[in-house]
Amino acid sequence: MTPVADNIIQQLKEFSADEVVTHAYVRDIPLTGGRTLALITLDNDRDHTRPNTFGPLGLLELGAVLDEQTVRAARNEIHGVAVTGKQYILAAGADLSKVSEIPSVEVGHGLGELGHDTFSKLSELGVPSFVFINGLALGGGTEVALHADYRTVDSSIAGLALPEVFLGLIPGWGGAWLLPNLIGIENALRVVIENPLKMNRMLKGPDVLKLGIADTMFSPANFLEESIRWADGVISGTTVVKRANLPGKIERMAKWDVAIGIARKQLESKIGTVAKSPYVALDLLKAAKSSTKEEGFAAENDALAALAAGDQFQASMYAFNLVQKRAKRPAGAPDKTLARPVTKVGVIGAGLMASQFALLFVRRLQVPVVITDLDQSRVDKGLEYINGEIDKLAEKGRISTDERNRLTALVSGTTDMADFADCDWVIEAVFEELGVKQEVFANVEKHVSPEAILATNTSSLSVEQIGANLANPERLVGFHFFNPVAVMPLIEVVKTPHTTDEALSTAMVTAAKLRKNAVITRDTPGFVVNRILAKLLGEAMHAVDTGTSFDVVNDSLKPFGLPMTAFELLELVGLKVGAHVLDTHHAAFPERFFESKNLHALAEHGRIFDRDSKGKIKGFDKKAVAIVAGGTSPMTAEQILTRVEDGLADEIKRMLDDEVVHAAEDIDLCLILGAGWPFQMGGATPYLDRVGASERAFGGTFHTPMIKGIA
Amino acid sequence: MAEQSEIFFVDGMRTPFGRAGEKGMYWNTRADDLVVKAMMGVLERNPQVPKDQIDDVAIAATTQTGDQGLTLGRTAALLAGLPRSVPGFAIDRMCAGAMTAVTTTAGGIAMGAYDLVIAGGVEHMGHHPMGQGVDPNPRFLAEKLVSMDALNMGNTAERIHDRFPHLTKERADRFALGSQQKLAAAYEAGNIQPDLVPVAIKTEAGWGLATRDEAPRPDTTMEGLAGLKTPFRPHGRVTAGNSSGLNDGATAAILASGAMVKKLGLTPRMRMVTFAFAGVEPEIMGLGPVPSTEKALRKAGLTIDDIGLFDLNEAFAVQVLSLLDHFGIADDDPRVNLYGGAIAVGHPLASTGVRLMIQLARQFEQRPDVRYGITAMCVGLGQGGTVIWENPNWKGKR
């Protein structure tokens, strides 16, 4: 490798003056036959809450240590070099907070070069090199291992991954070239592209071995001792390493391009083509088939520098921090110690939604859960569903049979609300109608203590009005789940003017125990997610109603890179529900939200898309197209896009001015967790700022400085 | 190589058990003093046992620091006035500490290394709350080797209720009530007092003398038990009423080989047939005595039907019920815990094993119709221990 230019090194050092340096400590370990292993320990001298990370200073230190070992190897002082990490952690890769502060494309390129330059020394020592993967290995942590000649892995590592694509980057310190050339293209696609897009899934020790990333695996009880002994065997020639997944000629000729093609199609259908990094990674993996290592690394440098300087990486880092940090310390949450203990839960309703609540509460809180409905047969049906789901969990091995018995014993049903007497949390999931909900709570209030928390899952009604007839409305909160309840990570916790800190705190602590992320919102129509979606869907339907074709509308919002189009979303939530959502928002804000008679007609018809037997979209349903025909002033895709962008910016600004939530960050967090809006948009507001919608809508930006790239 | 020797439980005594904590009667009494008093008591009652011929002193404690530290067996021997020539050591198997002191020294006797030993245990749970100073290896958590639930004994008992839904809270409460009533009756009949060593205790009101166990609640009712809190789980089943409490106390026993019994002309109270320990899932440690009892019976060539008396530690009522249920024994079988158990008398962890033996020995004396008895107990982190005893007073045909 050509060394990194001095002036770049100098810039990197200056940029990284405050780096938490991961040091490279060396000790000599005696091997058999009078040989010696130089063992390098990567350690930033902090505890496990601050994993080892790589910055320019740490890389330079490691590089210098490896240079020394090369000299020692030439003098025959050492016969092998191994690298391992501090307790529980090999390395968590580049320090991303630093990467997001890179001042210029040139420095970004230099950081890529320095990583390659440093790690490459592991393959140029003149003696065998090893990495003992003793713990968490992410990004550069995985890549340092890939540069070595051999790898061992601890069976209990917290995880190994190349998560770069998840954050808008690519494995740029050798991973994109080295991995497919070690474990084959299909396995590499899984690690580099599939896993990051599956909520950043990581590999466990046995996966690392099975995929061929590591040559052998040892138990944590004596991992380092065994690894040293194994390395001794390799160095002395008694242990021969075979790699089953090493790609051969046939794989390169017959499989490689096909696998890339399949992966590309899957990507396009799954996330669209707006997010750049997965496709850049795909191109790098494709080229790794026939490029030399030097060519591969050079391509990684260019790709990394471009992505690190771009908008999507900055928005992704912003989104990542929201999910990792803000979601865990929700804005406006009262002191946790105010929360009342929840030792028994009542669920009003025994339908599917209510049964899903009961299942979630009993699994996560492990307290008695009692469900109720109008008659015993509905209650029995609910219980049957819940117990069936518990049995399924046990059959899949997700819970033990002891746990199954425990959960089953905790769930009961009743038609007598007197059985709710000792509940300290009651949640309703009954018909979405104000009178019905008011009556249900008035009834339950006769039986429960005055302090018991009452929670409503309403999505469109005023929580305050639901509690209008309560003797103690101060214990009422909105607790708005997203479907499917077990999967979607968001709960909107709605605070009315009467809600006490105690009730709010109980709701927040309970949400956390349910392993959901809660965002506190004021009691305004649609709260956050439904209001934003109603804006978007209303605009889409309005465009159709005024004569724009489904096709044009459907494609017009592609630049967002949303997980599904407006009409797919409408079908997913149900056309009737969608029409109802538009109606309620139109009623609340008639000047800004459209209602759509056509959507009601489509709901009667039952579908928008024409689908094949597997549910795959073939086109638009002919009858649906006929239903909406008649508009006379069609818009272009560009016009629609601008209307939606500006409308969203305007609406979000109004929500912030009205203090629906505390900050733009909370809106973005809701959209990411509750509606699956992509990291590359940063939710909504970084995108709206960078496309100029904020400026157009209200003459400003949500973020100062804007969250955008340097190039 | 010496021939395998017979092992006899010559005699055992204990301190009255106190309630742990500042309000308990032993708050101002040292743990090592408690066990020393138990040792001196049993030696005084057996004056024909020559102190200089004691081969070893094994004393158990779970938390071996402070007044339970410093190699308890040796310090207790010195404090009890045994000759300096008598060695001693400390032992730990949590709740089965004293039981393990007995079985370990019994092994020494069986192979001829010992002829005469003292084995016992002490736990001052007021001075040494459960879990004091523990530092579990982070690998337990990192590798999910043992769930954190397993370190909380109450949670492990709740889990037995999960596994066996037919072992209801009502059955556990009824068994607990029986324990209180049986202990009260045993006190009434004078079956407990003879084996208690009185202990002088310093209180705020001046010096006093502990002569009775402090923990029993003879006025317990089913209604009272039903209303108790379930501290381990909301709306759970395990309560302070159907569990053993937190207690202070000490026990000591004299064991001897057959040859020594003959030489000294002793009248031993029990003969050890065999013993066994076994492991189970730590998360459900209360089941431990089931496999340990199966194993001990197998080694002894006996079946459960050969056992005439059981003294089972009542760490938790449900945990005893799980063993009875396994062997098809009724909850209120008169062979089981005739004098009540730990739910009533208390469970100063590492001392309890010998308390079970003391009670079984007393019952043997009154029941020449019974040949075999069992002492058994569960142990934290998923173990069980069982010792099978033969009654020297048995009048049947061999």
CATH topology group of the largest domain in chain A: 2-enoyl-CoA Hydratase, Chain A, domain 1
Q: How would you characterize the largest beta sheet of chain B?
A: 10 strands, mixed
Provide the CATH architecture of the domain at 7-128 and 245-389 in chain B. 3-Layer(aba) Sandwich
Based on secondary structure, the structural category of chain B is alpha+beta
Instruction: Quote the average pLDDT of chain A.
Output: 95
Q: Output the number of helix runs of chain A.
A: 29
Residues in helix, % of chain A: 40-55%
The chain pair forming the largest interface, with residue counts per chain, is: A-B, 18 and 13 residues
Q: State the CATH class of the domain at 7-128 and 245-389 in chain B.
A: Alpha Beta
Number of DSSP strand runs of chain B: 12
In the CATH scheme, the class of the largest domain in chain A would be: Alpha Beta
End-to-end span of chain B in angstroms?
Answer: 29 Å
Sheet/helix structural class of chain A: alpha/beta
Write the H/E string of chain B, N to C: EEHEHEHEHHHEEHEHEHEHHHEE
The CATH H-level superfamily of the domain at 7-128 and 245-389 in chain B is Thiolase/Chalcone synthase
What CATH calls the topology of the domain at 7-128 and 245-389 in chain B is: Peroxisomal Thiolase, Chain A, domain 1
Count of separate DSSP helical elements of chain B: 12
Could you describe the 3D structure shown?
The complex is a heterodimer of chains A (711) and B (398). Chain A has 711 residues and is an alpha/beta fold. Chain A has three domains: 6-309, Alpha-Beta Complex (2-enoyl-CoA Hydratase, Chain A, domain 1), CATH 3.90.226.10; 336-522, Rossmann fold (3-Layer(aba) Sandwich), CATH 3.40.50.720; 529-659, N-(1-d-carboxylethyl)-l-norvaline Dehydrogenase, domain 2, CATH 1.10.1040. Helix content of chain A is 49%, strand content 12%. Chain A has 29 helices and 19 strands. In chain A, the strands form four sheets. In chain A, strands 12-11-10-13-14-15-16-17 form an eight-stranded mixed β-sheet, sandwiched between helices. In chain A, helix 24 (597-605) runs antiparallel to helix 25. The radius of gyration of chain A is 29 Å and the shape is globular. The two termini of chain A are 27 Å apart. The mean pLDDT of chain A is 95. Chain B is of the alpha+beta class and 398 residues long. Chain B has a domain at 7-128 and 245-389: Peroxisomal Thiolase, Chain A, domain 1 (3-Layer(aba) Sandwich). Chain B has helices at 31-45, 72-79, 97-110, 138-142, 153-163, 169-188, 222-226, 258-264, 289-300, 317-326, 342-345, 352-366; strands at 7-14, 18-19, 56-60, 88-91, 116-124, 199-203, 206-210, 247-257, 270-279, 307-312, 372-379, 383-390. In chain B, strands 1, 2, 3, 4, 5, 8, 9, 10, 11 and 12 form a ten-stranded mixed β-sheet that branches. In chain B, strands 6-7 form a two-stranded antiparallel sheet. In chain B, helix 1 packs across helix 2. Chain B is globular. The A-B interface holds A 88, 156, 158, 220-221, 341, 343-344, 366-368, 401-403, 405-406, 409-410 and B 139, 142-143, 158-159, 162-163, 165, 233-235, 283-284.
